[in-house]
């Protein structure tokens, strides 16, 4: 039998985590939370959670759905409240003190859940319910919950013997600790690698970016223009910086992040990959990639390989053609094309060949209009929801804004779905990238509605001037909001099946579908208005964007494939594999995969690939999810368009059959329910301009 839990340490009544928040929908009382509140609350609720688990195990009644699975779903609510606030704020408000506490809590979190998932007595009860699930008069959602928890426990090592469980716990602890170090070093080096430039060095840069970088420098107490690094390898200003030496400096700062000195992440990445390889072997898998794929819609690494291999050769062919054209443009300036020149001359090709001028586009993409008249408006037209500002509700930072999400069903009274929080501007203490997360999960069992957060990293314009977005940032906004819709529309009973708790290679699918509305003519006309004149984005410019949609896909696809195949390479090593130099391993892996190109680095290199090494995104061996999900996305976009596009009927179908159901049913069944058939890779190849060079049209 399991050892009895430790006594629950008392929690002072004035700790804001002592009881659920009394704010609407359980929005945390951020203004009351101080650093010193986290650890006592953590220890109190971790002990309480283990006591709840012990009570489930000690129940003398025969294991059944209610006394085992439902009890498990109800357990740990206090700890969940603390963890959601803390780990979300570590991403958005990563002060030195928060990072130090994270270094302590990350391994403790891993140990805590190992204590539960590797509890043999608890698994024995779950296994008993799982064996008899079809004899218990359970409905489909209840069966899905049993199967989900059973798979979670098995893949966590519940079937290992005592020695194996102890080893796996140790491995998990080490990975959690190293992942925290990786993220901390990446954040520090990214901040240190920002370029402080003079006005003369910013030649070619638009007025809005000049103002934003000047404001960023002022915030740091510097004079000049501070160019902070975005997370991907390619930096936005590489498209406009006229000084080639400055472009080279910016590019080198980006691709060499966290790769030397005290913040060198290469050996940490290698250690994490080796530890994961050993974990997979303990669990009976050849590689960590095989372990991950087994619980995804892909099911096998071979299926992942089959999809990726369809794209490598045509992407390389298109990339080579693009490079040849870019070299023609670079030759006008008497230079040989280098990687830091790619974006610069690509923008010239767009302007000359396709009449797309990114500098002319940006004034049409003012943040507030994109948000209210674009992102929100598309959701209103498609799904019948509106967004009411709640200035009375306070976020965790003065720049965080809160909206109440109101549902207006075609028949029936309006209801409140939950809350939407937006944190849109870059900060030094904020990790790079863009993401969606939640502070409260939807669950009928717990009586909770979702509190959803969108985080972007847009350079904020000086006070009193509008913040303008690039076209890529507009698409990113629509993408991340697609994740929010997935969470907001969740309509399930059990927390484990709620919202975006779907397989990793499916979770990006709804968000990628939502990107289609960014350039939908009806939506564009509503939000893309010139910030000074109010003029609607001219149809000629919109037509040019559509004509240019395939341009650059060789590079873009190669970037994604590079990161995807690098992720797969790291997570297919053996635990005893001898890797002398992690950077050399990266280079050799890309060569072996047929995607290596000096001009086009992977979207993320090893040392700043936080998706797979920082432990924050859960994409280890799963970065292929973006391309895998895009197969489904491209197919679904064609379904929308063939059925009338932006209609409430289409939105209601997509919402009811796919967005609302979480993991209560097989995701691929939900996809087929909407589209009417199995997925086909052809629409994706067509979208990316790769169809002519691909072999065959067989389904994905």
From TrEMBL:
Annotated ranges, domain Peptidase M3A/M3B catalytic: 238-689
Which Gene3D superfamilies is this protein grouped with?
A: 1.10.1370.40
List, separated by semicolons, the cofactors it needs. Answer: Zn(2+)
EC number(s) of the enzyme? 3.4.24.-
Q: CDD domains, per this entry? A: M3A_DCP (cd06456)
Q: One GO term of the cellular component aspect?
A: cytosol
The enzyme class is hydrolase
Q: Which family does it belong to?
A: Belongs to the peptidase M3 family.
Which named protein is this?
A: M3 family metallopeptidase
